[in-house]
Structure formats: C-alpha cells, structure tokens
Amino acid sequence: MRIVMAQRNPLVGDIEGNARAVIDAAREARTLLGAELVVFPELMLTGYPPEDLLLRPSLNRRIDDALASIGAAVEVPVIVGYPAVRNGVRRNAAGVLYPGDEGPRHEYFKQCLPNYRVFDEKRYFQPGNSAMVFEFQGLQLGITICEDIWYAAPAAAAAEAGADAIINLNASPFRASKPEERFEQVASRARETGLPVLYCNMVGGQDELVFDGASFAVDGAGHLCLQGASFEEGLVPVDLSGEGAVLAVRGEVLPVPVGEESMYRALVLAVRDYVNKNGFKGALLGLSGGIDSALTLAVAVDALGPERVEAVMMPFRYTSAMSIEDAEKQARALRVKYRVLPIEPAFNGFMDILAEPFAGLDTDTTEENLQARCRGVLLMALSNKGGSVVLTTGNKSEMAVGYATLYGDMAGGFSVLKDVFKTWVFRVARWRNQKAGTEIIPQRVIDRPPSAELAPDQVDSDSLPDYDELDAILERYVEQDMSAEAVIRAGFDRDVVYRVVRLTDRNEYKRRQSAVGPRVSRRAFGKDRRYPITNGWRPGD
C-alpha cells in the first residue's frame, strides 16, 4: 500500500481555499505518486491555530461544506484534520473521506489537548476518549493527532484496538531542537507498540508560529525509514508492505537542517508567509549599517526576492561614515531598492517645538529616543504610501532588557529577530555568508562593536553587559525560568544578574506593544511568555 503524507501550508480561516488545497494535493499524489491514501495535517481545513475563529457561528457549516466538496472531488481516500462539533461538543478531529462521500466515513477525536506555552486547545476543544482503527486494503490503520503521540496511552489504545500502523496528524510548530525531540517521542511509541508510525506535519508561518514540516516515518522498532523536506511543502510517499505491516520505504531520507541553518530557514519562511498571507506588496526596513538590520535584510531578500524589498538608511549627526558605507554596500549587493533619508531636519523641527518645555533641562535619553522616533515615522509613512510592511530589526536580547524605543525602532508590523538572541544573530549572519560564499552581510558589520549610534562614540556595552554574558543570563532566566538566585549559583555576578532580571521584568510593557515575530526558541516573548505588566513581584528565589 502506498500512503502519501501531504505536507501542506494552509491559510488560517480560509476553509474553502484549504479544501481546494486538499483536493489539488490528493489529485497530484494520486496521479504522480500512485497514492492509495493521502494524509493531511492536523486542522488542515482551518489552519493552525484558528483561535477564536472556532467560535464563529458559521464555522461548522463551512467545515461541513468543505468536507462535502472534498468527497465529491477526490479520486483517492484522504485523512484530513478539522474541528468538529458532535452532539454539541467541539473536538479536534481527523476524518477519513472516500471518493463520493458527503462527509467522513470514520472520525477520530484528539485525546491529549496541549494547554501550555503557545497552545491553548482546552479553551476550544473537549478531548476524545477512545481509539479509532479502520480497515483499509487489508490493514488496520489507527489515527492519532499531534500531542497524542507524546503520551503512551493513545498509541497503546490503537494497538489494543488491532492497529497494524499508526498515522499521526500534526500541527507541530518549530523551535530549536524540536525535530530531534519529535523523533524520540515517535520512536518511543513505535517501540512500545511494535507498530510503524507515520508522522505528517504542517508547514508554514502563522503569526508567531513557524511549522517546519519535516514529516517522517519509523518502523515498529523505532528506526527512521523516511524523512521529508523541512520548511517547504511536499508530498512524502510511504510504502507499507509485508506481514504485520512491516514498513518499507522507497526513496532517500532527506537531511534535517539544524543549528544556524534551521533558524535562518524558519525566519525566511515566517517572513514570506506573513507578508504574502496578509497581502502586503513587500517589505521595507531601516538599514542602519549594524548587524541586526543587515541580517533582517538578508532574510527579507531570501523570503521575498530583492524586487519586493526596500532598505532605508536614515543618517543623523552621530551616524558613522562606516555605517553609511556598509549599508549601501549590502543594499547594492542584494540589489534591493535603497534610499537615504536624513533625519536631521525632522529632529530639529521637533526640538524647535519642544524648546520651551525642555528649557533648562539636561540632554538625556529623551533626545536619543526622539532620533529613533523620527526614523519610525518615516518608515511608517513609506509603508502607508507603498503598501509594504515595516520589518523591525530588534533582537531578543534587546527586547528582553528594553534596549529599544517605543514608537521608534520598535515601530513596524513584523519583528524578524524578536526571538533571536544577539549572540545567535552573529552566528546566523556568519552562516549566511558562509553558505553564500561571499559577503551577503559585510564582514565589517559582523566584526565591529554593536552600537545604536544615538550619541557620540556610543556602543551597546556602555548600557548593557557583554552580549555573551547577557544572553547566558537571559537564556536561564527567560527560557529556563531559573530564579535570580539560581542564575547566580550557576556562576554569574550577583549585581549583573539582578540588574538584568530587573530590566527584563520592568520592560514587559514595551514587549506588549511590540510587533509579532517568529518563535524559534524554547520560550519566546508574546504568546509563549506572558507576565503581568502591573505587578508587585520581586526577583529572587
């Protein structure tokens, strides 16, 4: 038997369009690959996560219409994910549709509902409580959905119900090291039950989440037999044959990107889908001559092509000649539209207006922030006029400690590096140059000390600890949820730790007003890590 896992990129809420994608993929899998059964990801018809769209009164009717349209159009049976209301209860479902059917012939309801980090399925769904195994061409096939495979019980129940193989539908978002963790979980279920497991995953960007695909299959001993592509759509054929459904696979096992490559490709996919799915004409950003905007520009060009990207240098009296030269060099190398808009006249105009209220007061960060806000106004004006989204360029280290200006460099629609620590910005930039075999990002940009250039001879280390130290503390405090005292016991200076922790806690108000950005770490700001803005908590144990 040939089963094809259709690794697809749905648009959240576009039920009719997603149904057409199912029909088209099933036809292609049947015609080109000889599929006898085609499997689609979790909640394929709504996209994931549909959030409160699930509460819309017309959603159930649209799902039923979509299922009927699929049954009327396909020439091969399909397994597809969707929300289903049965007896007044909404569930996360997978249905088996045969050609000509108006609705699913068999249905399975997800038993394990994730409700942590970026997941809140218990807000919307009730769990199922039983296995579903159906006969297909002499084999008994069991279905599970995503989180089910991370626990032993659902797979064990399918095995007890007579399954010869398990098909697992997924909308599993990417983060660092996630592919390895998925494989270990799936291999464990295979070894526990002695059954092959087919893992079909969604692909695409959805606001803060990135789905990396990388569908795969293991045999009953937990050995990897097939590995699909990462960060792109694909049709992944799996052949089941032999006594007891021994898994046999024809075709190569594709490599799974890791480290800097996986992070870069996740960022590219996130930008591409955010821009395209939201109907923007392209993207624009302020190109400062620094490492963050340089990496953001490279990602944008790889996501959209140079013809849809615009870079804007907005120099001021503190902008170095080196920054201006490097920004222009990269823009020319990447062949993007490039313009220079000096902010001196705007800044002077604001200062003239503020002369009376500022009289007798010392110059401080107010004037620095005003520079950033002049730049934000210009970028948003260009965005409004041209229809491109502004990509903000701040990184996770800066967002953690508030080293960013509200309505200034934080102004924009999508924050590409929001979940990328500064040390990783350098690593990913070096990887991109190495991959290209040339300076996509000027080497001088990578080598020079980071600076916001908002004051004479300013460098980031004037205001922040060294990034190696800062990121090591933030990784423990933000991503691992270690207390301040636990971080100190790990070998860090007490004063530095408490300073970083206090900055992180008190800048939640800024992060709440920042643009969304792709989650690539174990714990990101936004949907993942949510702290009250107004609170009396004090750091410590």
Shape: elongated
> Assembly state here?
single chain
Percent of sequence in beta strands: 15-25%
- Report the mean per-residue pLDDT as an integer: 94
- Structural class based on helices, strands and sheet pairing: alpha/beta
The tally of strands reads 20
Low-confidence stretches: none
Rg over alpha carbons: 26 Å
Strand order of the largest sheet: 5-4-3-2-1-14-15
Largest sheet: 7 strands, mixed
Count of runs of 4 or more consecutive helical residues: 17
Helix proportion range: 25-40%
CA(first)-CA(last) distance: 57 Å
InterPro entries: C-N_Hydrolase (IPR003010), C-N_Hydrolase_sf (IPR036526), Gln-dep_NAD_synthase (IPR014445), NAD/GMP_synthase (IPR022310), NAD_synthase (IPR003694), Nitrilase/CN_hydratase_CS (IPR000132), Rossmann-like_a/b/a_fold (IPR014729)
EC number: 6.3.5.1
Keywords: ATP-binding, Ligase, NAD, Nucleotide-binding
Pfam family, one: NAD_synthase
Note down, in words, how this protein is organized:
This protein is α/β, with parallel strands linked by helices and 541 residues long. The protein is built from 17 helices and 20 strands. It has helices at residues 15-33, 59-73, 152-160, 178-193, 259-277, 291-304, 321-334, 344-353, 355-358, 365-386, 396-401, 422-436, 443-447, 467-479, 484-489, 494-506, 508-512, and strands at 2-7, 37-39, 78-86, 89-97, 106-109, 133-136, 139-145, 165-170, 197-201, 203-206, 209-212, 216-218, 224-227, 234-240, 247-248, 282-286, 309-313, 337-340, 388-392, 414-415. Strands 5-4-3-2-1-14-15 form a seven-stranded mixed sheet, with helices on both faces. It has a six-stranded mixed sheet with strand order 6-7-8-9-12-13, with helices on one face. It has a five-stranded parallel sheet with strand order 18-17-16-19-20, with helices on both faces. A hairpin with a 5-residue loop joins strand 12 and strand 13 (224-227). The longest helix has 22 residues, at 365-386. The chain starts with a strand and ends in a 29-residue tail after the last helix. The mean pLDDT is 94. Belongs to the NAD synthetase family. ATP binds at residues 286-293, 393. Catalyzes the ATP-dependent amidation of deamido-NAD to form NAD. Uses L-glutamine as a nitrogen source.
